[in-house]
Structures are given as C-alpha cells and as structure tokens.
Amino acid sequence: MSHSAILLIALAILAHAFLSVMAAIEPLPPDGSGLIRLTRNEIRRLLAAMLAPAHTIEHVISWSHWRRQHQARARTSHYQRQAATDQ
C-alpha cells in the first residue's frame, strides 16, 4: 500500500472520529421541539456548507432543521407501526 493511501485512510478515520465526538457532545434538542439530535452526517453537511457555501447560512440551517424534524416524525411513525404489528 502506498504512503499516500495510508495517509488518506488515516485522514478518513480522523474525520470520522471528529464527527463522532461532535455528535456525542451535542446537547439534546429541547423537549417538544420535534427534532432529533445532530447526527454525524448532519454535522458533516453543516461543516461542508460553511466551508464551501452554495447557499446562505440561513438556508442551510433552515434546511437542516426541516430535515431533522422530518426524521423525528419518521422515527415516531416507524415505532408506532412496529408496535402495532407486534400486538
């Protein structure tokens, strides 16, 4: 394996560890907000949007809020369907 391939793998592992720590220390959303916690993927999207913006930061945060709200609703619906089929 080449030296550059080893460096790329190490960088990918470091980036994954960084995102994992960021997600772990993220405080819980307020009760009743209807949001899930920030995930590693969502943190990655937000960081990428800050580093190479294609949209305004307001748009990015609004889109992130909508996506997390939608994921929370989907999770609740999934759990309700699972509970109904288990009975």
Give short descriptive properties of this protein:
single chain, 87 residues, mainly alpha, 3 helices
Record field, number of beta strands: 0
Structural class designation? mainly alpha
Distance between the termini: 54 Å
**Helix count, per DSSP?**
3
Question: Shape, please?
Answer: extended
- Helical content, roughly? over 70%
| β-sheet strand percentage | under 5%
Order of H and E elements: HHH
Sheet with the most strands? Answer: none
Number of self-contained structural domains:
1
- Gyration radius over CA: 17 Å
Unreliable residue stretches? none
Question: What does it look like?
Answer:
This protein has one domain (3-86). Helix content is 75%, strand content 0%. It has 3 helices and no strands. α1 (3-25) crosses α2 and α2 (40-51) packs antiparallel against α3 (57-86). The longest helix has 30 residues, at 57-86.
Give a nutshell description of this structure.
The chain has 87 residues and is an all-alpha fold. 75% of the residues lie in helices and 0% in strands.
